[in-house]
Specification:
CATH architecture of the largest domain: 3-Layer(aba) Sandwich
Low-confidence stretches: 7-30
Number of helices: 10
Order of helices and strands: EEEHEHEHEEHEHEHEHEEHHEH
Distance between the termini: 27 Å
Number of strands: 13
CATH topology of the largest domain: D-Maltodextrin-Binding Protein, domain 2
Shape: globular
Strand order of the largest sheet: 4-3-5-12-6-13
């Protein structure tokens, strides 16, 4: 199976598009290691954000289902584009009692020169979920769908104001740039306004202060459901469900713009095979639970479980694609990756 991420093909690996076959990332069994003390699930953001929510859902389900016998504690270490949190986990080399919820930020922070920590300095344990990026407008916008947006940008790249959160170089910025690049438009010519949070972006769109709001579909969904915003396109490979079931994908509109913001789990570097096997088993079981999948459904997220070996391959492919995207946007400052 050939997949596209940020506009390019990835290696053939078990992925979210074949998630019905979760067993393709079969966890090791009979691991001879298990946590003997409190496990810290580190979050590179303040309480209440996406990664924090995922960490706390993981904590509850794994504890309630006794997937992990040891206590689990969520620890928030925001700041520096994730460098503080990931650096903290990295300090505990070889210790399976530390992990962090990670996303594309782990990769983009290194590419943009915000963090010196390369993802391969850590141990990718799993990719857990997948979310996409939505492009939304007011109902009375002259832009009827993504094709109208592309046509407008081709005639005047600076004639459309995009709103996004929360920093240039992040996945929302990459989504905008990917649409521009796929349409043959120089991403550096776009007009982009950066807000502190996706909620503020939607408020700006509702007030007519930006032409197009770009962000997680789950944030836009309540406004779409209320008839206050309309979706131009989503960067997913297929249409989402729920209130966004009628929203088209960029792909079906003829624009090669498939952008994924994965969220997963990483551990320190130097974990033993038995430590990795334990977390492969625990996280795979978590991904199969009804409680986990119900939460994903409500949040318009996809179950994208990949075990440690496949996650390593996935992150490498994502790093290469994100670097290309950020280079186009003028934000790539990372040195050549380690062999």
């Amino acid at each position: 199976m050939k997949l596209t991420r940020i506009g390019r093909a990835l290696p053939r690996i078990p992925t979210l598009l074949a998630i019905a076959a979760l067993a393709t990332s079969t966890p090791a069994t009979g691991a001879d290691w298990a946590p003997a003390e409190t496990v810290e699930i580190v979050v590179a953001a303040s309480p209440g954000g996406g990664n924090d929510n995922i960490a706390r859902v993981m904590q509850k389900i794994m504890q309630d289902g006794r997937l992990v016998e040891a206590p689990l504690n969520v620890v928030n270490k925001p700041g520096a584009g994730g460098a503080i949190a990931f650096g903290y986990v990295g300090e505990h080399k070889g210790n399976g009692h530390y992990m962090a919820v990670a996303s594309n930020t782990l990769l983009t922070s290194h590419i943009a020169g915000i963090s010196k920590l390369y993802y391969a300095d850590l141990t990718p344990l799993a990719v857990m979920i997948n979310e996409y990026i939505g492009f939304v407008v007011k109902p009375d916008s002259p832009l009827k769908d993504g094709r109208d947006l592309v046509a407008r940008l081709k005639s005047d790249p600076a004639g459309v104001t995009f709103g996004m959160a929360s920093a240039l170089g992040n996945i929302n910025h990459i989504a905008i740039g990917t649409v521009a690049r796929a349409a043959g438009i120089d991403p550096k010519k776009l007009r982009i306004v950066v807000f502190r949070g996706s909620g503020q972006v939607m408020t700006a769109a509702l007030g007519g202060h930006v032409d197009v709001a770009v962000g997680p579909p789950s944030v836009a969904a309540p406004h779409v459901d209320a008839g206050k915003l309309r979706v131009l396109a989503i960067t997913s490979p297929k249409r989402l469900g729920g209130v966004l079931a009628e929203a088209p994908t960029w792909k079906e509109l003829g624009v090669d713009a498939l952008v994924v913001n994965w969220r997963g789990v990483i551990g320190p570097g130097g974990l033993s095979s038995s430590q990795t096997a334990f977390w492969d088993q625990a996280l795979s079981r978590l991904a199969r639970t009804d409680a986990w999948n119900e939460r994903l459904r409500k949040s318009l997220w996809e179950n994208a479980y990949l075990g440690s070996n496949d996650a390593q391959q996935y992150l490498k492919a994502q790093y290469d694609e994100l670097k290309r995207a950020l280079t186009d946007l003028g934000f790539s400052k990372s040195p050549a990756p380690k062999p």
